[in-house]
Task: inverse folding
């Protein structure tokens, strides 16, 4: 067997390969008995996540009503939030897009307050997206695998929305 010097590159590549194998070995299509996907705690977390998405959807609707000029920027983000709410309600990680869920305004008792200034309104939405992403990230530890994947995906989308709302060029 030829001797091969361990360089930083080969060590990193070997570590990445081993990490990938370990990660894939831990992924299963079916939850184990110790991690019930539909336990009472998981269902409460799913319901709370759906309600949080619905509240964020109401914030988007209120902002769109107060600042119609922001519609080109906000409508795609709002449509994704509607899909997130539907995913939590249905229990599926990848909901089928439906024109009704994305196009219909969220129904809530009281609309959230929206700043009069467009920039401040975008910042308020970004803050709400960030806070919800942080909440979902914190909930990952207690979530069963499939719900954890959904929470992580939606948290990442929320962080991206926050960036798009306040990032460079906005």
Result:
């Amino acid at each position: 067997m030829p001797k091969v010097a361990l360089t930083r590159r080969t060590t990193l590549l070997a570590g990445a390969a081993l990490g990938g194998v370990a990660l894939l070995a831990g992924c299963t299509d079916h939850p184990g008995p110790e991690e019930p996907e539909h336990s009472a705690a998981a269902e409460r977390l799913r319901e709370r996540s759906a309600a949080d998405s619905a509240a964020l959807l109401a914030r988007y609707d209120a902002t769109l009503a107060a600042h119609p000029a922001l519609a080109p920027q906000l409508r795609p983000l709002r449509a994704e939030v509607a899909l997130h709410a539907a995913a939590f309600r249905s229990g599926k990680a990848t909901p089928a897009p439906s024109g009704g869920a994305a196009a219909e305004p969220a129904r809530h008792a009281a609309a959230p307050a929206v700043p009069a200034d467009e920039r401040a309104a975008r910042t308020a939405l970004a803050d709400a997206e960030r806070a919800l992403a942080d909440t979902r990230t914190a909930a990952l530890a207690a979530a069963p695998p499939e719900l954890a994947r959904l929470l992580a995906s939606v948290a990442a989308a929320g962080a991206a929305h926050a960036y798009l709302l306040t990032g460079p060029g906005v």
Summary: The two ends are 58 Å apart (CA to CA).
